[in-house]
Amino acid sequence: MRDVQIDLGEVPSGESGTALPRAPVPYRWILGPLTLLLVVMLGGGGPPPQPPPAPFVLPLTLGDGIRLDENRLYVVEQADPVGTVVRHHTIRAYDLPGMELLDTYRVEVTGDIQRIADVGDGLLMVGFSDVQNGDPGTSVMRPDDETPVWTRPVDLYGIAPDRSVLLAYEGPGANQPVWRGMDPRTGAVLWSMEPSEVLQVTMPVESFWSGFPERIYALRADGRLEVRSARTGVVTATTRPAGPLRDDTAIWAAGGLVLVGRGTEETTAYDQETLAEKWRRPGPVMPEDGFPQDCRPTICIATYGGGGFSAVDPATGRLLWRADGYDAGEVIDGHVVVSQSSQAEPALALLDPRSGTVVTRIPGWVSGGPGPAPGTAWVYRLNQPGYQLAYGVLDLGDGKVRLLGRAERIAGGCQFNTAVLVCRRLDSSIAVWRL
């Protein structure tokens, strides 16, 4: 503060020069308001906001891969030797968000590692595909022990949150697999559903993100529709849809309903728990290349290949709205979040699930999935050239982004979970930020 004089008064003659008199009485009244004004101007007088902590940087090579779940980060080192059929993989498991090394696993498989899941008690489930024929396989490993606890030629679909049962499937083909419920610690088969019994199988769409369905819906060869417990394999409800089975008969499960479509002729909806019929209407409800999503109070349908988004009324099956021009989308806490990621400048938009109208647009940002609190989403933007990253939290209610931090020299590959953000850097290392 330049050119400001403060009157300290005068020292009376004959008194010590160390004594400081009181401020002159006429000006004392202004000190209170002046102090208040300075506090307001300085933002409340508190300390300035602190920048986000520096990330934990883990050196990796370009051939190393990473897998992220809710509380673990797995680093899959490049297989040794490269290009052979039998490959030796080293997997390091880190605790999140502290990045403490927990265990190291050594896996010998005939191919590449596709999936990793924590089974509990230090056991790690590893899913792989055979490099020669593409057949799936799953092994459960102990730390620092290349001998599997068990191995089976199955592909992992999901594991229950309490780690008590896993859902897997195996040959003879991708269209007609054998579905199995298994004990993840021992590999014992708890129940099976053979392809000779069923024509089609589907699960509620929510399980694609949660990782495990509580119910499985099957259209049997004899024309019956049934619901099974994914934990026990027990059939809990059954019904026989009207009309004969056809080659184009298909089933889906979303929004509390199981939909049975008979080509372009008819669609019937059933309750997901009881299979009681809810409604029936002529024509298709689900397009051939559609994917249902639960965005209650409606059922949203994403069309593959950038075909846009639409929504139907779960009470009647009537088409409510359609929004074109979006190539990706997701439903977070009932909010429809769509994106235009194929454009030079990515953009997000929030749609009203009842009408499909655009509530707000968020240019330049990419969704990172459900955020730290209900009604929020993680978002980030990566500027190239420049390799500059910004990340934050999107409020799905008002469309505003709260910036959390920035970073330089980021190549991409960013992933969020509830605790961290992980991104690849230009030197192939990964940076891990606490959120």
TrEMBL record:
Sequence intervals crossing the membrane: none
Coiled coil: none
Pfam families membership: PQQ_2
Domain Pyrrolo-quinoline quinone repeat, residue spans: 180-323
Protein name: Putative pyrroloquinoline-quinone binding quinoprotein
Origin species: Actinoplanes italicus
